[in-house]
Design brief:
Elements: E1 25-27, H1 32-49, E2 55-57, E3 63-68, E4 79-84, E5 87-92, H2 95-110, E6 120-122, E7 128-135, E8 152-153, E9 156-157, H3 161-172, E10 177-181, H4 195-209, E11 214-219, H5 223-226, H6 238-254, E12 260-263, H7 280-291, E13 297-301, H8 321-326, E14 337-342, E15 366-371, H9 387-394, H10 407-411, E16 422-426, H11 442-453, H12 459-471, H13 475-495, E17 533-534, H14 553-558, H15 568-571, E18 574-575, H16 586-609, H17 617-649
Parallel strand pairs: 1-2, 1-3, 3-5, 7-10, 7-16, 10-11, 11-12, 12-13, 13-14, 14-15, 15-16
Antiparallel strand pairs: 4-5, 4-6, 8-9, 17-18
The structure holds 4-O-methyl-beta-D-glucopyranuronic acid.
């Protein structure tokens, strides 16, 4: 095994109290998931305590007991773990619940808990907790920053030991659905739902299922044309419907228990219902109806916008597109359709407002899409711990109702009683030895899973757990790495683009500073910077985007005075001389934030260097190199952004720093 096991490699622990339970694992009922749970416990106990636990069937009052129960409060996938006399009990209504309980027990031990403090009941907050891979069948990964795909190579599906280890990593943080292939479905990927690939898919599905994970695929809306030789993919054509029916029946015959499909339609060159003058509800419902008898779901992405649109018209605004397209369709989607919505209205920028579709549509299942692949946040070469950003999104009050109106309430189904809903993340894995390119990027995968399971966990708590599992519980290790993670997103925001404006990256690669780099900038620069100021006016005088929110959000975003400052330039064109609440002018804020961002990276690097004696050398060196690089790159960001705005504004830095 050339690769490492991220947070699933266990440190020896000295918790003596737990030893009394380490006589055997007892299971009353057995299936593949319970076997996985038992296997996980056995190997963890072996590594942590040096004890080999025998596995026994039948009831017992001693040892580690895996028990199926019938308790309403544990829901479908929840667990109750607790010590009881000479037994440590992991109890749940389903085998998945037992698996999650087993991983939690292991986690608590790794985090240094004593047996008496290990009782816990937890039911996952979100029904669906998914990872979306953008893996292509040639082995490349769209926006992949940690090597090649471990699912595909040369247009074949790989089935090897790593698939199981991936399932272990995902299940250990509560993931229960995985989309294998990129949403841009082309060529061979269109054929994934054909005979050629069923055998391997079946195998992957079996491995995933033994870790409580359902398999999903991304679908090409034009499959009837490309695979079926029809001349249309019109969702209302009987011929097209029948073709899909036969095809999807075949899929479910071959892959019973298959989760369903993720679809990107009418976006960035992908085909969709618009070609035929149909709505997205027509498209989604046609597919949903076909797979409904099998319990399948259609996850339909709301990332629909016209990248060719002409912005000289003042009301034209990419940010408006999702809401403008989907809001009028509220209530027309089938019950097994879920709309998957990116956290912001644009595209995973370091700072965006929350998409107004959350709480904007009240009668349509919704799912939150975030991106742990750091496409716009340093591409896994910079540390950028994204969990604090996701927490802000989840905690955002939409005001769609008087209470239970936060994004976390909506996507978990608490607001409107949905059961088809949840959270999805665009994956940051690849076949690098450490899975994530940057060792510290693993915290985003780990954190996303944990947060989707338990939205109440704090970013610090999640970081602490991940550090304990990965690097141990030494207080210095805990403190320094947690501090590095916690300042990384604000630092990245500081040295890149200011106050919510975004997009100051090189076109296509989406990496490195380029103030005018927005690739769809045919009609002037996205950020609208001139000699007097910058920012996009999205008030009613401008594009009108701010009005897509419920009040008071809409009212707040409408005016410069009430707009949250971190989003000021997203919503308003503001003069360089405008005074912010801290008394600084906008231009001075731009200079200061960029210098501060670099200083924060200096601190991050220093804190890592202090860990030289505590971290295994190869890992220490890998991270050190990346942090040194990050520091240099953050300076480049600072210099390019500051000099651009110095030249535009001709206002010098009041601290007289050298601006190149
Ligand atoms: O941000 C854009 C990315 C594309 C991606 C698209 C999407 C998979 O640059 O690479 O395509 O988002 O989310 O569909």
């Amino acid at each position: 095994m050339a690769y490492e096991m991220a947070w699933l490699h266990y440190h020896k622990i000295s918790e003596k109290d737990f030893l009394k339970f380490l006589t055997a694992i007892h299971v009353e009922y057995e299936d593949s998931i319970i076997q996985s749970a038992a296997e996980e416990i056995t190997s963890a106990v072996r590594d942590m305590f040096g004890i080999y636990l025998p596995y026994e069937k039948g009831e017992s009052r001693e040892g580690i007991l895996l028990k199926l129960s019938k308790k309403d409060e544990l829901g479908k996938e929840g667990y109750h773990i607790y010590p009881s006399g000479k037994a440590f009990v992991i109890e749940a209504n389903s085998s998945s619940g037992i698996l999650y309980g087993a991983f939690q027990m292991i986690r608590l031990l790794q985090c240094g808990y004593r047996a008496e403090n290990m009782e816990e009941i937890k039911v996952p907050d979100n029904p669906l907790r998914m990872i979306n891979h953008w893996d292509n069948m040639d082995g490349s990964i769209e926006r992949g920053y940690s090597g090649k795909s471990f699912f595909f190579q040369d247009n074949e599906i790989i089935v090897d030991k790593r698939i199981k280890d991936y399932a272990r990593l995902a299940a250990s943080v509560g993931i229960n659905g995985v989309v294998l292939n990129n949403v841009n479905v082309k060529n061979h990927a269109t054929e994934l739902i054909s005979k050629k690939y069923f055998k391997q898919l079946k195998e992957i599905q079996r491995i995933f299922a033994s870790y409580g994970i359902k398999l999903y695929l991304s679908l090409n809306f034009a499959t009837p044309i490309e695979l079926g030789n029809l001349n249309s993919a019109d969702p209302l054509s009987t011929e097209v419907k029948n073709w899909w029916k036969d095809k999807l029946n075949e899929v479910y015959q071959e892959l019973p228990g298959f989760g369903g499909f993720l679809i990107k339609a009418d976006s960035e060159g992908r085909p969709g219902p618009f070609t035929y003058g149909r709505t997205h509800a027509d498209g989604a419902n046609m597919l949903a109806e076909t797979i409904e008898p099998y319990g399948g779901i259609i996850i339909w992405r709301c990332f629909v916008y016209n990248c060719e649109q002409d912005w000289r018209d003042k009301k034209t605004d990419r940010a408006r597109a999702g809401y403008d397209h989907f809001k009028p369709l509220d209530g027309t989607f089938a019950g097994n359709v879920i709309l998957q919505i990116k956290n912001g209205p644009m595209d995973f920028q370091v700072r965006e407002p929350v998409s107004p579709l959350f709480g904007g549509m009240k009668q349509t299942n919704q799912m939150l899409e975030v991106q742990i692949a750091q496409e716009y946040t340093g591409q896994q070469r910079h540390v950028c711990y994204l969990i604090p950003m996701f927490k802000e999104v989840l905690n955002f009050r939409t005001y769609c109702e008087n209470n239970r109106d936060k994004v976390s309430d909506i996507v978990s189904g608490k607001t409107y009683g949905w059961t088809n809903c949840g959270m999805a993340a665009v994956a940051n894995t690849g076949d690098d030895d450490n899975w994530f390119g940057h060792d510290l990027a693993a915290a985003n995968f780990y954190g996303f899973g944990r947060l989707s399971f338990d939205t109440g966990l704090s970013s610090e708590k999640i970081a602490g757990e991940w550090i304990a599992m990965t690097f141990g519980t030494h207080p210095k290790v805990q403190k320094n790495i947690r501090d590095i993670l916690m300042i990384s997103w604000p630092a990245y925001e500081n040295y890149t683009s200011p106050l919510g404006i975004g997009w100051m990256v090189n076109p296509h690669s989406h990496y490195g500073p380029n103030v005018d780099g927005y690739e769809y900038d045919r009609w002037g620069t996205y950020h609208r910077a001139d000699h007097f100021g910058l920012g996009v006016d999205r008030s009613t005088k401008g594009t009108g985007y701010a009005a897509q929110y419920h009040n008071p959000n809409a009212l707040n975003y409408e005016t410069v005075e009430n707009c949250p400052e971190e989003l000021l330039l997203f919503f308003h064109y503001v003069k360089y001389t405008h005074r912010l609440t801290n008394g600084k002018t906008l231009i001075q804020h731009i200079y200061d934030a960029h210098f501060e961002g670099v200083e924060e990276v200096e601190v991050m690097l220093k804190m890592w260097i202090e860990l030289i004696d505590y971290i295994e050398d190869s890992v220490y060196q890998r991270v050190l190199k990346r942090l040194e690089y990050q520091l240099e790159h953050s300076k480049e960001w600072r210099d390019i952004i500051c000099s651009y705005f110095y030249r535009k504004s001709a206002i010098p830095d009041d601290k007289n720093r050298e601006i190149f």
